[in-house]
Amino acid sequence: MLIAEDAGRESAKAPEPGAFDSALVVVHGMGSAYTSQILLEWAEPLLERMDWIARDRIIGGRDEHGVTIVDSELTGDVPIVTATVAFPTRGTGRIEDGAVVDAETTRRRIAIVEARWSESFVPMSRAQVFRWAVPFMWRALTRMLGLFRQTLVMLPWLTLVEHQRPPHDRLLIGRTLTAIVDIVRVAVLTVVFAAVWLGVVLLGVVLTPILPLLSPLLLIPWFKDLAQGVLDALVGSIGDVAAWKERPVRASAMRLVVRDALARARELVGDDGEVHLFAHSQGAAVSTFALFEELDPAAFNVRRLTTVGAAVVLLGRENWRGRSDRYAPVANWIGASPAHPVAWANHWAVWDPFSAGPIADTRRAARERWRAAYFPRSGDTALGPEEHAVHNTSQPFLDHSEYYRNVVQVVDPTARHLLGPALAARPAEVEYLENRLAVIDKKSLGTNLLAALVTAAILPGLPAASAAFAWLVETVALAVGAVAGVFTGAPASDALASVAWLVDEGRLTDWGWLIAAALVAALLIWLNQLLNGVTQRSLVWQRCPMEARRWLVLTALPRVGYVALAAMTVWCAIAAWTTPPLPAAALWAWGLGIGLVAAFVIAEPRFAPSPVVVPARRVAGGTSATADLQPPMTIGRALASPAYRNELAARRRLLAPATAWSRFWARVLHGWRS
C-alpha cells in the first residue's frame, strides 16, 4: 500500500469541501467505543482490499495503481481517513492472453468518516438497565431460537424437498443417496436444535429472577468486590440499547451524531460526490431510523446504505408512553426520497443472534426472504433490501462481531461499491465459486471446532491416554525437580508431591482430566485457526488461486482428520467405559454407526446449500424480482464455464514466482513452467 510522501504536510490541513468522489460514514454497534475504533476496524480492511483489487493484473493493474493514504486523523472530534485509489478504467485497454493491458487509469478520492455515538448521552443506572433487561432478553432469545430453528430444522427440510424436485442434474450423487443424506441431516440437526432450545430456555429461566437482583446485591461488600467489574462491563455493553429503547431524548442524541457525520461527508463530496452509510448492530438501527424517518437522504447525497449484523428489527424505534412503537423500516426506506432511492444492502450472518435474519416489516416477509436466500422462487414478492446471508465463523455469538474479517462476502463487495462503476466487473461464475468455497471453508472451521471439543473432552479420560498424560506430567515434574535439586540438594522425586493433585497411581485425577482437556482443546483450536488462516489466504489473497477441485480436496483433509479423531475417541470411550463390556459384534455395530455419522459430518459442508444474494425489492405489484430465474448455479457448472476456465488460464500465464519456494508451488499447483 502506498503512502504519499507529503502525507505529513497534507494531514495538517482540513480536507477541502467537494474534494472527494465518495465518502463512507461508519457507525459502530452496541457498547462503548473509543475514538477511531470503528474507523480503524473498517478502514484498514477496506483500503487493503481496494489496493489488492486495483493492482490485479487481470484487469490491467500496474505498479502505479493502488491506494495512496493522504490523511489518517485518528483523534479529534471527527476522526477521518482519506485516500486516493488509482485503478484501471473499465472498458479501456486491450486483451492479451486473457488479461487487460494498457488500460487508462481512474483516480477516485475517498474519505472515511467515523460516527461515534456511545458518548453522546448520559448512561442509565445499573438498576434501570437490569430491570429493562429481562423482557428484552426474552425477545432476543426468542428471535435467536427462531433463527436457529430455521438454520437447523427448516433449511434441512427445504433442502430435502428441493433436492427431490427436477431437474436432478445439479445433484452430486444419485437421487436416492441424496435423499438418504438429506434425511440424516434433518434427523441429526433436529436433535441438535432440541438440545440448543432446551439449553437457551433454561438459561433464560435462570437469568430472569437474577437480573433484577444484581444491582441491589452490589450493596454487599464481598459481592461488590467480586462482581462489580463484570457487571459494569455488562451494563456498558447493553446500557446503550436500553437508552435507545427507553429514553427518547438520549436516542435522539445518538441519531444526531449520525446526522452530523452525514453532513460532514456531504460537505466533503460536494454536489457531485456520493455518500455511503455503513452501520453495524445497534448502529444500523440508529442509522436507518435517522436516515429514513428524520432526514432526506438526497439532501446528504446518500446513495447507498450497508448494514451488517443489523439489529434493526430487534431494536425497532424508541418507546414513548401511550404511543405505538410499531416500526416498519422497509416501508420507511421505500418512502424516503423516491426521486433518489437509496440502495440498501443488508449482510446477516447465519448464526448471528442479534440480526436474526433478513430485514422485513412482517414475520411472513422475513421468512420468505430468508427462504429466498437459499431457494428463490418465481413467486417471491416480499419487499425488502438486498439481502446477503454470510458465513463469518459458523459459530454462534462470534459471528456478530466478525463481519470486518469476512473479506469475500462483506469487505470485497463494499470496497467495489466505493470504487464505483469505472471498476471492471467480475464474471458471475468466478464470484459464485469464490463465495461457495468461502462458505465451505467457514463451515469446515465450525465443524473442526466441534470435533476438537469432543476430542478434548473425552481423550484424557481414556485409560491409555490418561496413563500417557500422567507419565508426561510426572516426567516434566521430575525434570523440573532435577534442575531444582542442583541448587537445593533435594531429590528429584520430591517434585512428584507437587503434582499429586493431577496424578494418582499412574492415572489422571479429575482435576488432571479437566486441565488436560483444556490444554488439548486449546491446541486443537489453535491448529484449526492456523489451518483456516492458510486456506483463507489461498482463497482470498492469492493472485492465482488454486483450481477449485484441487482446493476442495486439499482443504477437506483437515476436516477429515478432526472428525476422524473425534469419531475414534467416541468409539474408544464406548469400548472402555461401558459396563459390562460390549460384545464384539455390538462394538463393531457402534463403530459402523459412528463411522456413518462421521462421513456425513465430513461431507456436509460440501453438500449443504450455499446462500445467494436476494435482490432488493421496492415495489409490491408487478413482476416479481425473481420471476425470470436462471438455472441454479452449481460448482460443476461454474467450473465448466468458459468464464472461469479462461480467467484461471490467464492468471496462470501471469504467474511470475520470484523465489525457489514459490516456483516449486507454482509448478505443483498450477503447472507453471519457467
UniProtKB/TrEMBL annotation:
Organism lineage string: Bacteria, Bacillati, Actinomycetota, Actinomycetes, Micrococcales
Protein name: Alpha/beta hydrolase
SUPFAM superfamilies, sorted: alpha/beta-Hydrolases
Membrane-spanning residues: 183-206, 449-473, 511-531, 551-578, 584-603
Keyword Transmembrane: yes
Keyword entries, A-Z: Membrane, Transmembrane, Transmembrane helix
Organism, scientific name: Agromyces soli
InterPro entries: AB_hydrolase_fold
UniProt superkingdom: Bacteria
